[in-house]
Amino acid sequence: MAGLTLCGCAVDPSVYAEANFDCQAVGITERDPQFATCSEAYSRQHLEDQIEKSYRNALRRTPTDVERRLPHQDVY
Prior knowledge:
Shape: rod-shaped
Distance between the termini: 47 Å
Strand content: under 5%
Radius of gyration: 21 Å
Number of strands: 0
Structural class: mainly alpha
Oligomer: single chain
């Protein structure tokens, strides 16, 4: 169970490389004291975007055959 949890939190190294590039693009170099904070913020933003994308995709499921054949009728 712990191994599965750790795999779920794993981040592709390219995410960190992109975060470093984004920090340098806004003028924060590796010698600046806030570089670690900046790269962490960009990598976390990427993870949050992926979570939101997965959530939206989960909400957009395809209807089943039964749902397609039988129209939904609300009774008021």
